[in-house]
Amino acid sequence: xxxxxxxxxxxxxxxxxxxxxxxxxxxxxxxxxxxxxxxxxxxxxxxxxxxxxxxxxxxxxxxxxxxxxxxxxxxxxxxxxxxxxxxxxxxxxxxxxxxxxxxxxxxxxxxxxxxxxxxxxxxxxxxxxxxxxxxxxxxxxxxxxxxxxxxxxxxxxxxxxxxxxxxxxxxxxxxxxxxxxxxxxxxxxxxxxxxxxxxxxxxxxxxxxxxxxxxxxxxxxxxxxxxxxxxxxxxxxxxxxxx
Amino acid sequence: xxxxxxxxxxxxxxxxxxxxxxxxxxxxxxxxxxxxxxxxxxxxxxxxxxxxxxxxxxxxxxxxxxxxxxxxxxxxxxxxxxxxxxxxxxxxxxxxxxxxxxxxxxxxxxxxxxxxxxxxxxxxxxxxxxxxxxxxxxxxxxxxxxxxxxxxxxxxxxxxxxxxxxxxxxxxxxxxxxxxxxxxxxxxxxxxxxxxxxxxxxxxxxxxxxxxxxxxxxxxxxx
Lengths: 243, 223
Known about the structure:
The complex is a heterodimer. Chain A is α/β, with parallel strands linked by helices. Helix content of chain A is 37%, strand content 25%.
């Protein structure tokens, strides 16, 4: 379970997050949506610690995340898998090596153990046949599925997705969303920054709508999409849905 | 002039060429290690390490290499004598190697630094989210990718070193140019030995260029 309390973050004069408080329960799939520049990616990056918030607290399973307590903080971050918009697979490593490096160097697993785990997850995301390929030889969808497998190899308790399909060609979006849907079905806690409204509605349990660094509305997915209560959410939805 | 082209003379010059290449090779390898260390210093968050990296680069890039060679050969033994009171005889080959390495290290520091900074920020963030430590990240991810980008300038650096190793003829190390000068003196003919030396330098440097193209092609496998 994750709890965010009064989070603030600025980039220079720009206030990216203003007093964000949020709770995410185990097994929940929460979609962070909103216009670009609304702070949804920044919020996700703050939760993982890729960005340092100026003030506010983040609690993971009841424990405060405190960068000053190095070992505890590192252990807490290991509970969260992170998937990037631009995949960020290691370019100089094959797909299999991508999935093995952190297992051997961080978890201290043997090569054989790491390889077995890597192949297990690569099979799960349908990438086993590409295990020996370099990222440059893969399509966007394949890269993202490999990146998801790489994160899963670390056996995280929850997965954070930062616009996982925004850099993909349209015909590849579904293969990635399918993998994410399966993950959700298996009970993985997920926070997903996304523009895929269909995914947020059908797979997500809850929607958090942000604009200009503030949470404007928060509701069960179906209720949010069928009946948004705030004007700004209504306006946003009318712009993203074309009919 | 024909009598200068004897087997013995050519072997004599080839030996000199071999020393030039060995020195350049040694210097490029040691310089690379220095370059990795000082580039990491320059990119470090620590002000003291930044400062050390900057001082090193400025000193060795900002003074003539011949001065550095003479300093290590003639200056350092005096310093040693002043401190310990005993004399030290510097070996010109070792001194040459040290001077060339430190000089090349300064240039390679800047090369490697730009290579490291050229690696996509996402690669660092991926390491961070997976919990991969700094040392593993550098060794497995960042440096290999940085080096791939700087192979062409590194090869230029190696070619420069093959040529610049001629400067240590000044302290009596028998490399290719020194061998040419020895023969020139012996036969009262500088033209032919210098032409032979030039041809040998060119053969070496063209060979290096050719090899580097093969290396680049192999490295392109993951592109």
